[in-house]
Structure formats: structure tokens, C-alpha cells
Q: What sequence folds into this?
């Protein structure tokens, strides 16, 4: 399956703890957007296949709206 054909997952807090482990598990068969506020810890995810790290403050409605407007679909949301 190509990356574009994979189900799309968004994981908030995806750069540490349970969120990070969730990102790693989902990346096996999903295109995962790992959302976090710490750009430095997100950089480590750049090397993980099927993971797109994204620094985003989910309390910033305009930023979240701009991000979601770029998506065709979301199959899984972990918050």
C-alpha cells in the first residue's frame, strides 16, 4: 500500500509517553500525523516510516483549522 492509500491517523501528544508509543504502533499500517508542541522531540520522528511530525498547539483553533483543511480524510484520532 502506498502512503497515500494508507488510513490516516492523528495522534496528539505524539512526541512522548503513551502518545509516542501509539504513533509507533499505528505507523505500521497508517499514515500518522504526530502532533506535539516540542519541535525538538518531534524531530526524532522524522526518521520513522509513515510518520509526519507536526509542531502544533491544539488549543490554537486557527492553527488546527489550517492543518485539518489540508487533509482529505481522518480515519483515526487519538487525543
A:
Amino acid at each position: 500500500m502506498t502512503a497515500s492509500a494508507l488510513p490516516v491517523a492523528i495522534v496528539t501528544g505524539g512526541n512522548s509517553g503513551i502518545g509516542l508509543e501509539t504513533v509507533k504502533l499505528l505507523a505500521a499500517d497508517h499514515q500518522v500525523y504526530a502532533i506535539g508542541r516540542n519541535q525538538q522531540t518531534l524531530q526524532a520522528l522524522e526518521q520513522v516510516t509513515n510518520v509526519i511530525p507536526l509542531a502544533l498547539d491544539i488549543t490554537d483553533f486557527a492553527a488546527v483549522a489550517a492543518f485539518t483543511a489540508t487533509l482529505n480524510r481522518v480515519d483515526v484520532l487519538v487525543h
Notes: The first helix runs from residue 17 to 26. The two ends are 26 Å apart (CA to CA). Residues 38 and 60 are 15 Å apart (CA to CA). The beta strands are 8-12, 31-36, 51-55, 76-78.
